[in-house]
Amino acid sequence: MTGLQPDLHPDSNPDFLDTNSDTNSDSDSNSNDSHSDPDPDIGLLEFPMDSPMSHAILEPGEADDLSGNNPDHGLDVHMDLPGAVADLQEKLLNGYQCPPHPTGDISKPKVLSTSQSLSLKHYIAWRKSNGTVLAYKLHAHVLQDACNDTTILSLHAVCRLASHLTGLEPVQVDICPGSCIAYTGSFEELDSCPFVWSGSRSPCGLPRYKQKQSPNAQATPHAQMLYIPIIPVIRAMFSNEETSRLLCYRDHCLQQALHLVATAPRAHAYSDFANAYVHLQQYENGLFQDSRDIAFALSTDGAQLTMKKQSDTWILILIILNLPPEIHYKSSNTIVAFATPGPRGPGDIESFLYPLFKEMAMASAGIWVWDAVDSSYFTNRSCICMALGDMLGSAKLSGMAGHSAVFGDHFSMVRGAHASLKPGAKSQYYPISPPQSQTYNPEHPVAYDLDNLPMHNSQAYWETIRMLQDARSKAQAQAITCRTGISCMSLCAASPAYDHPTFFPLDPFHLFYENCMAFLWDLWVTMSSPSEIIHLSVEKACTFGNIISDAMSTLPPSFCGTIWDPYLKQQSQYKVFEWMALLHWYIIPIGIELEFNPTVLENFSFFAEAVEIAMTIQPMGERDLLELMGLIKAFLTGFEQLYVGDDPEKVSCH
């Protein structure tokens, strides 16, 4: 039997994998028993090896009678949604309904020959060791001789075998050669690119196909993108016993959380998606009723591949939230759905996401899957539960107006402040109490109460979407966006788990390190004058950088890579782990030694401690969250006093 196996943390031993469990393993139970510890050296999304077939195999006709799953069971989500959501879901489904029985295209586990089994094991070892093609051939000959001349398949043949066993076949999607759009959804039948870039008055217009050499020749697209289908990955994961059990981790935590909320609500602590309040609400709304339903997180970001020329590509990954948190972020346990080829970032990112959401619409409606634990078919319902990205990426995914809008915050309705009286001045900062607000920002409240901020909520979001859809002109729609911060309905709204704004949580690595940490350093060194209390002199900044460089001789390199001098290298692709090291390890102790301004350093310490608590893997209860909120409030109020003060011009630059 074939299956995908997890890449476990060496110290991982989840409680829910109880080897002494006497739980009944019939197909109508949510069995969490296990037989052996998963191999920590096998990646979840690497190609499979065979395993003994220890259970009887059920025929498709028997599956739904024994599995306890009703394929017609709907998702009972209690929300009055606009008709546009149902229309979008219907369009994505394109008539698909979960069949009453497993169909012929869902293969049962296959018994492998000795040759196939050894070839796959050799292939996995070759992949994990980053071997060359020549290394594969030479080691295959050695293995073949050692195994009594058992045939070891060629690299091409074993790749085809792995693809056949798992059903993982990449799909070619036509795209504009300028990376404007993918020819999906409403663009699917077009022959040229209609996308209009910001600042341009005319569409791209690049043709979709190359010129034919003869009238009967097949149309050849100018550019394509590789997309990895997700449904075969879901089926492959459940075809392995160890992975199938690990995928029940989410439900194990969920049931514990539900029990605590019902019996001792004050004892409930939050540590990950599986026991988060959002997930509890999803369960109460009818989602994730089966322990094997999968929750995915979507994450996307741009990457500059080279320093010499334009090479902007966007990568999209899926994180499997069912897995224990110590392993679900590991690269071997994430799914790379696609990477746009560049040379520039996508214009209409939703057109690139469209194939994924078509599949996820089917997965949410229900797909038949073989479960290696029960040796039976069951109906799996999976959906995307969150979309992660930096500020620009999140705005592309969420349909929000963006961070420079009047209401640019994804979570609160704090109004942006102007730092200039010139017409058209942008809102760049969202203060508690902007200075001279009656002159510069008369529409802005005098002050916001951090304990009672106006927040976005789902009901207001859907009301705004209805207003945008009913808008009679572009100007009317823009006015709605200006006063709400919402510009359009996101493709993500097709997910049954969609809820605004929690579907788009903050990305802490971008926010805390690449954004906040880098910004604070610039404020100290380059964006402030020597007369300001926050200013860090050239002499101190240079000394600080020298100490950082010298510290690498005593800091174990296994913690991270080399930390460069921020004074010299900050503008040369300073990396996230370097900003992390400055925030968590260096700035406060070295700042004390170099006699940084104590008030500025104290304010920074509130920020550093808040990040430390927010990023901890330890569960946090209500008291811990209140303590975290206190640190954040102390930092924000102190920040405005130190960095803005009474000068409204600093609202935009600080």
Low-confidence stretches: 8-14, 19-78
| Helix and strand run | HHHHHEEHHHHEEHEHEEEHHHHHHHHHHH
Summed over residues and divided by their number, the pLDDT gives a mean of 83
So how many helices? Answer: 22
Fraction of residues in helix: 25-40%
Number of DSSP-assigned strands: 8
- SSE-based structural type: alpha+beta
Order of adjacent strands in the largest pleated sheet: 5-4-3-8
Strand content: 5-15%
What does this structure look like?
Strands 5-4-3-8 form a 4-stranded mixed β-sheet. Strands 1-2 form a two-stranded antiparallel sheet. A two-stranded antiparallel ribbon has the order 6-7. With 654 residues, the protein is an alpha+beta fold. The chain contains 22 helices and 8 strands. The longest helix is centred in the last third of the chain and has 23 residues, at 622-644. It has a domain at 508-615.
Write the layout of secondary structure elements.
Layout: H1 60-67, H2 83-93, H3 114-128, H4 133-146, H5 155-166, E1 171-175, E2 223-227, H6 231-238, H7 241-246, H8 249-263, H9 277-284, E3 295-304, E4 312-320, H10 325-328, E5 334-339, H11 349-365, E6 367-371, E7 376-380, E8 383-388, H12 391-398, H13 437-440, H14 458-470, H15 474-484, H16 508-525, H17 538-551, H18 566-569, H19 576-593, H20 598-614, H21 622-644, H22 650-653
Parallel strand pairs: 3-8
Antiparallel strand pairs: 1-2, 3-4, 4-5, 6-7
